[in-house]
């Protein structure tokens, strides 16, 4: 974007702007372009500051801060996860994010990230499957048909080539809604009556449930040779979706091991259990899928670099679309040391008017 002459002004992308941006670009194009930015940043993974997210857990849910920097830009996301919210008419996950200039510390973007997190999570899942699933994978089971499900389906269609969906949720109305939302989007869709039925014949299995508890969404007998598992729902301590035996049969790929060992499916395993880092596969430093019969598992918990990529991508679209407003966010006195004088001038102005 062109630099603003007023140093107090920061571009803000609202929920309305984000929806309009996605629709203007086209959701599948948006997901595909975002995936390319994620891959670009994963290839330079070693340039980034990396730390597990800072989490505040309660019995109701979690509130997290997710920071990172590549030395030029700094980004962070504020995000919550409260499974009980749905019963209260609220979103389970909401978020906003900031991108800043490392050189002067000034924010260069403030953005909603509830929609953007759903989009980047889906794009990240599809990037992993692009590198780990069997070639020509066409059929995906989605177990857990909540707010993430349509985004996952569209990302896998755009990036991996999935055209057949098998849907299951313990709430049939969620499956009905998901199937309805995806009607006419180029899928063959089957609503299933059980998770067992959903995984039959699937090349890829996505689990995206919300309950904050140890759970067995997939049992060992449900996963055959060659399947790629995209485990999205397990993302905090005490919350898992897969039976431990599945992990022991799989080649496991993660984002950032120190975080995933606390929050991911691999919290069920010993702290030194061998896993592979996805960035090394994307960068060509290690092999992904080793054979047709290997079970690959992307133990996805979400990492700050993915949000950094998403914010970077959105910022690149602002000048051409104009889909933002200018926020008077930062104090900008005429003399940098005279912050109190700025207050006095405001007081004098108010007396006049």
TrEMBL record:
What EC number(s) has UniProt assigned to this enzyme? 4.3.1.12
User: Which InterPro entries does the entry link to?
Assistant: NAD(P)-bd_dom_sf, ODC_Mu_crystall, ODC_N
Query: Does Lyase count among this protein's keywords?
Result: yes
Tell me which domain of life the UniProt entry assigns to the organism this sequence originates from.
Bacteria
SUPFAM superfamilies linked to this entry: NAD(P)-binding Rossmann-fold domains
The GO molecular function terms of this record are: ornithine cyclodeaminase activity
A Pfam entry, by short name? OCD_Mu_crystall
Q: Give the enzyme class.
A: lyase
What keywords tag this UniProt record? Lyase, NAD
Similarity comment: Belongs to the ornithine cyclodeaminase/mu-crystallin family.
Protein name, UniProt field? Ornithine cyclodeaminase
């Amino acid at each position: 974007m062109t630099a603003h002459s007023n140093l107090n002004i920061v571009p803000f992308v609202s929920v309305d702007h984000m929806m309009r941006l996605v629709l203007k670009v086209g959701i599948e194009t948006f997901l595909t372009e975002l995936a390319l930015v994620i891959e670009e940043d994963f290839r330079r993974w070693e340039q980034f500051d990396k730390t597990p997210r800072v989490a505040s857990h309660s019995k109701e849910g979690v509130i997290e801060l997710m920071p990172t920097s590549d030395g030029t830009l700094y980004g962070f996301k504020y995000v919550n996860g409260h499974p009980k919210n749905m019963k209260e008419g609220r979103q389970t996950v909401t978020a906003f994010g900031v991108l800043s200039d490392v050189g002067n510390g000034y924010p260069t973007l403030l953005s909603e990230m509830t929609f953007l997190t759903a989009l980047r999570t889906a794009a990240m899942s599809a990037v992993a499957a692009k590198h780990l699933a069997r070639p020509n994978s066409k059929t995906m089971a989605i177990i857990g048909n909540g707010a993430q499900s349509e985004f996952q389906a569209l990302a896998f269609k755009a990036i991996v080539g999935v055209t057949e969906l098998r849907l299951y949720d313990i709430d049939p109305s969620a499956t009905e809604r998901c199937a309805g939302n995806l009607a006419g989007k180029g899928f063959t869709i089957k609503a299933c009556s059980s998770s067992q039925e959903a995984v039959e014949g699937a090349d890829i299995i996505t689990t995206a449930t919300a309950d904050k508890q140890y759970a067995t969404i997939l049992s060992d007998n449900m996963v055959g040779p060659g399947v790629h598992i995209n485990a999205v729902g397990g993302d905090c301590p005490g919350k898992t979706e897969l039976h431990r035996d599945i992990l022991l049969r799989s080649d496991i790929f993660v984002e950032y091991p120190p975080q995933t060992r606390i929050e991911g499916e691999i919290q069920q395993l010993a702290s030194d259990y061998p896993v592979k880092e996805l960035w090394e596969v994307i960068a060509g430093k290690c092999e992904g899928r080793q054979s047709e019969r290997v079970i690959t598992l992307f133990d996805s918990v979400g990492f700050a670099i993915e949000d950094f990529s998403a914010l970077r991508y959105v910022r690149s679209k602002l000048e051409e679309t104009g889909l933002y407003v200018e926020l008077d966010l930062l104090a900008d006195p005429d003399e940098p040391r005279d912050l109190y004088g700025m207050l006095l001038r405001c007081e004098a102005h108010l007396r006049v008017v």
